[in-house]
């Protein structure tokens, strides 16, 4: 009984340590053929600025359309269009901010 309770507490602690990006974005993208960083670079190439990238990602994830996707036709044919997110706007903004910080190249250039 004590071992079961301890295991439950450890598992709960581990799961709560993950942020919204790790739990919701990385969990799904982990097994995909195209890694999550490639999406970031596609957004950056298309939208350029932090403000525009974040706005485009938020808009697309809340209402995915063929018109707004950054995926090439081959990937859309293979995987289909992304389903609408179930995250709240606040959670989605938090995840996008974490994602931006993870892959932001501007601060890493010298």
Number of helices: 6
Described by strand count, sense and barrel closure, the largest sheet is: none
What's the assembly state of these chains? single chain
Order of helices and strands: HHHHHH
Overall average pLDDT:
85
Helix content: 55-70%
Q: Count all strands and give the number.
A: 0
Give the number of domains.
1
Rg over CA atoms, rounded to whole Å, is 17 Å
Low-confidence blocks of residues = none
Q: Which shape, going by the Cα principal axes?
A: globular
* Strand-residue proportion: under 5%
Structural class: mainly alpha
Task: Please give a structural write-up.
This protein is mainly alpha-helical. The protein has one domain. 66% of the residues lie in helices and 0% in strands. It has helices at 2-17, 20-29, 36-47, 50-62, 73-79, 89-103. Helix 3 (36-47) crosses helix 4 and helix 4 crosses helix 6. The longest helix is centred in the N-terminal third of the chain and has 16 residues, at 2-17. The radius of gyration is 17 Å and the shape is globular. The termini are far apart. The relative contact order is 0.14.
Structure described in brief:
With 110 residues, the chain is mainly alpha-helical. The chain contains 6 helices and no strands. The chain is 66% helix and 0% strand.
Top keywords for this entry?
single chain; 110 residues; mainly alpha; 6 helices; 66% helix; globular
